[in-house]
Amino acid sequence: MARILLVEDDPALARGVSAMLRSKNYAVDVVECGEEAFASAMDEPYALIVLDLGLPDIDGIEVLRRLRKAGSKTPVLVLSARDAVADRITGLDHGADDYLMKPFDPDEMEARIRALLRRAAGEASPVIRIGALEIDPARATATLNGTGLALRRREWAVLERLAARRGKLVSKERLAAEIFGYDEPVAPNAVEVYIARLRRKLEPGGPEIRTMRGLGYLLDPA
Fold first, then answer.
1. H or E element: which one contains 169?
2. Fewer CB near the terminus (10 Å): N or C of the chain?
3. By three-state DSSP, how is residue 193 classified?
């Protein structure tokens, strides 16, 4: 599960898209204006931004321009009712990673999101293989030695985030920020609880989740 920022000022559309994404196990924060979108994107570690262009304060293109000027590399999927080729070119030239016209099919949106997340993680294949562990982000499933792992939503989120950066240190604070939205309560030891559960489920034969004391966690590909 990845954390997504949805920038959309149409309340009905925002509710529909956020509900669809949450049903696919994404954490979603929703904002309706450009200034708040820029501030949120700079403050939080989002895996992806879904950005409407027609916002009530500043245009989505201006939000995109500011993000890229500030050095943000977060993938951006633009949503727009503007169907002119020139508008699409403008969005892509200002740093959009993909462009989806309204109205759109929810399945197509999710497929494009999966592709952008794979690309950002450097994954050519939708399936991540780490020894005997196979993780399929598109289906939110994991198997160990060919047997499916029964993972709760947050367990899956932690495993997927660690697997996406396997062999690299991930701080507890970053894990929490990536898997919990604004309005979700987070217990002080929540991440430790999910890590402990995952370790039990990855034994025997699965990759080790190592604790780097005071620093964070690392999924050891060896």
1. none
2. C
3. helix
